[in-house]
Amino acid sequence: MEDRIYINEVAPRDGLQNQPVLVSLEGKLALIQSLCAAGVRSIEATSFVSPKAVPQLADAAELFARLDQTHGVAYSALVPNQKGLERAHQAGAREIAVVLSATETMNLRNINMSLTQALTVCQETIGLAKALGKRTKAYLAVAFECPFEGVVDSATVIRLAEALHSAGADEIVIADTIGAAGPTGVRALLTPLLANYGRTALSVHFHDTRGMAVANAWAALECGLRKFDSSVGGLGGCPFAPGAAGNLATEDLVLLAEQSGLVSGIDLVKLLDTVVLAESLVQRPLGGRSYRWLTSGKYKPASMR
Amino acid sequence: MEDRIYINEVAPRDGLQNQPVLVSLEGKLALIQSLCAAGVRSIEATSFVSPKAVPQLADAAELFARLDQTHGVAYSALVPNQKGLERAHQAGAREIAVVLSATETMNLRNINMSLTQALTVCQETIGLAKALGKRTKAYLAVAFECPFEGVVDSATVIRLAEALHSAGADEIVIADTIGAAGPTGVRALLTPLLANYGRTALSVHFHDTRGMAVANAWAALECGLRKFDSSVGGLGGCPFAPGAAGNLATEDLVLLAEQSGLVSGIDLVKLLDTVVLAESLVQRPLGGRSYRWLTSGKYKPASMR
Q1: How far apart are CA B301 and CA B102, in angstroms?
Q2: How far apart are CA A207 and CA A218, in angstroms?
Q3: How far apart are CA B202 and CA B39, in angstroms?
Q4: How many inter-chain contacts (A to B, CB under 8 Å) are there?
Q5: Beta-bridge mates of residue A230
Q6: Distance between CA B230 and CA B137 in Å, rounded?
Q7: Looking at CA atoms only, how far is residue A282 from chain B in angstroms?
Q8: Nearest beta carbon to residue B211 from set A219, A245, A288
Q9: Spacing of C-alpha B74 from chain mean position
Q10: pLDDT tens digits, residue range B217-276?
Q11: Cα distance from N-terminal residue to C-terminal residue, chain A
Q12: Which helix (H) or strand (E) holds B4?
C-alpha cells in the first residue's frame, strides 16, 4: 500500500498575511487555482481577523464567495474568536482553524489575554464551530520555543492539546511558529501526541528560520506523522526582519517525500509554476531550499526516471 | 557522558578547488587559522593533484610546510595516486585521503580508468601510505547516486567499502558527491556500514544541492554516525553551474548538533567570522541554511542561554 503524506498549503493565508505588497483578490484566486492545478487538496485560504490588523486579508469574505468548494479541495479559514467564526460561517467556510499560543507571555503580547483566557476563547469557538457542523483545527503556536519565555515544556503542550481536543477539535496542529525546533525536540513532542491522537488528527507546521525545517519534517515522518502545513516557495515570515525566514516550502516537503518513497499527490513541475506566480504577486524572489536545483533542469518526475 | 560529533572541515580543499578566484597561500593559511580558532580539530588542508588540473591547489607543498602539526589539529591531504602520495609525504602530510567513485562511468569520465583500475590504484596507494605510517581515509564518491548511472546499488558501495577497508583504510567516508541522497537512503546505506566498521571508522560527506543535507545529517546521526565532513559557509560546489550547491555547511551541522544536545567543540560565533573571511577570499556571498538567522543577532551560545 502506498505511504502518503497530506499537505495543507498555507501560502494564501500564513504566507501572505505579512507581505508588504497588497495582493489583489484576483491574484489570490490565481494562486489558489495554481495550487489546485499542482495537486494540492487542502488550502488555508484566508483568515477572518480584523481588516485593520491584517489589511492583506481584508477580502476574506469576497475570497470565500469565489471559491469552488465542490471539487475535492478543502479550504480552511483561520478565525481568532466567535466574531471571526460568524464571519467565516456567513462567508460559507466549511473548515475553520483557531490558534492558541502555548505560553502566557505570547498570549499577552499577541492578543492581550492570559493563556487561560485565550484557551477559553478557543474552546468556545471550537464548540460553536462544531455546532455549526464545521471541521475544526486547533493550532498550538510557539509549541517548541517562545520568543519571550524560551523553550516550552512538552507537558504544557500535551495538556493544551488535550484541552483543545476535548473541546472538539478534529485536528491538533503543532506549530513551530518561530522556527526554533530541532529534530530531537520534534520527536520528543510528537511521539506522545501521536500516541494520543493518531496520524489523522495531528499535524505540524514548521518554519525554516534556522534551516531545520526539512530535517524536522523528516523527524516527524520518522515518528509516523503524515500531515503537514507548508507554503509554496516558502512564502511567509516577515520579509523585513533580518533572520526571519519563511515557512517550510511545499516544494522542499514534496521533494523530501519523493526522496523517501512517499506519495504527496503534488506535481513538483507544476508547483514550480506556482512559485513563479507567487513571486510575481509579492514582487520578491521566493523558493525553498531545493528551488535552485529544482529549476536547474536536473529534476525529473518519478514517472520519468 | 557527553555525546559528541566529530567534524572534518573541508573548505580549504573541497571548498576551494573549484572557486574561480585564486586564493593566495596566505589567504588559505588565514582560513585554516580561523577554523582552528573556532575549535575545528580536523581539516582537509589541500590536495596533491596535478597543478594543471587544479591550479587553485598548486601550492599544496608550500601550504603543508607552513602548517603547525603539533597543536592538536589533524590535517589531511587528498592524493589521487602514488605520485600524489609521494608529494604529500615529502611535504610532511601525516594523514591522506584517496577517492574512489562507486560507478564505472564516473571513473571513466573523471579519471579515464575503469572502476577496477581505480580501485587497484586506491588499494595500492592506501598500502603505501600505511607503510609510510600515515593515517588513511578512503572516500567513496557518488555513493548514493551517479550523474551518469543514476541510483547506486548499496551492495556495490558495501563491497567497495570492504575492499578499501581490507586494503588498510583507517576510515571510510561515504560521499554524496552530487547531493542526491535523501534521509531514507542515508539510513539504508549507513546502517549496514556502521555495523561493519563502527562509528570511529566511518564518516559521511554531504552536499546540499537539493536542500537535504541537514536532514541527511540528522538521519546519519539517528543511525549512530558521529563523523562528518562539512565546509564553512557551505563553500564548495561549482559556483558557475546552475543548480549546483555547496557542501553541507559547517555552521548548519554545528547548529543541528547543538539543537540535538550533541557537542561539536566548535564555537558558532567564532565560526561566523570564518564565513566572513571565506567570503572575502572567494569574493562571493557564502553561508549555509542557518546563516541568515545566525547573523541576525538572535543566536545565543549554549553557555548564555
Answers
A1: 40
A2: 14
A3: 22
A4: 115
A5: A9
A6: 15
A7: 21
A8: A288
A9: 13
A10: 999 999 999 999 999 999 997 655 544 578 999 999 999 999 999 999 999 999 999 999
A11: 21
A12: none
Measure the CA–CA gap between A265 and A286, rounded to whole angstroms: 22
Neighbours of A224 (CB within 10 A): 13
Give dist(CA A69, CA A134) in Å, integer: 13
Name the DSSP class of B119: H
The number of CA neighbours under 13 Å toward the Cβ of A178 is 21
Quick check: A208 and B259 CB within 8 A?
Answer: no
Contact residues, chain B, for A259 at CB < 8 Å? 181-185, 210, 212
Chain B residue closest in CA terms to A288: B211
The residues of A assigned a catalytic role are 238
Q: Dihedral sign, CA of A177, A181, A185, A191? A: positive
User: Are the Cβ atoms of A259 and B212 closer than 8 angstroms?
Assistant: yes
Q: For each of the domains in chain A, give its residue range(s) and CATH number, in order of start.
A: 6-304 (3.20.20.70)
B interface with A, Cβ–Cβ < 8 A, is 150, 179, 181-185, 208-212, 214-215, 217-219, 222, 241-245, 252, 255-256, 259-261, 288-298, 305
Q: Chain B contacts of A291, Cβ < 8 Å?
A: 211
Q: Is B243 left (phi over 0), alpha (psi -120 to 50) or beta?
A: left
| Helix, strand, coil share (%) of chain A residues, nearest 5 | 45, 20, 35
Q: Is pLDDT at A239 greater than 80 in this prediction? A: no
Dist. CA A100–CA B92, nearest whole Å? 62
pLDDT tens per residue, range A14-66 = 999 999 999 999 999 999 999 999 999 999 999 999 999 999 999 999 999 99
Half-sphere exposure of A284 toward its Cβ, with a 13 Å CA cutoff?
17
R_g of chain B, CA atoms, integer Å = 18
Task: Please give the Cα distance from B201 to B193 (Å, whole number).
Answer: 10
Cross-strand pairs, B42: B74
Find the farthest-apart pair of alpha carbons in chain B and give their distance in angstroms, rounded.
Answer: 54
- Residues B43 and B75: beta-carbon distance below 8 Å: yes
Q: What percent of chain A has pLDDT above 70?
A: 97
Q: Cβ contact (<8 Å) for A293 and B183?
A: no
Torsion of CA B281, B282, B283, B288, to 10 degrees: -100
- Taking the C-alpha atoms of residue A46 and residue A36, their distance in angstroms, rounded to an integer, is 16
- What SS3 state is found at B54? coil
Q: Quick check: A192 pLDDT over 70?
A: yes
Helix, strand or coil, per DSSP, at residue A46: strand
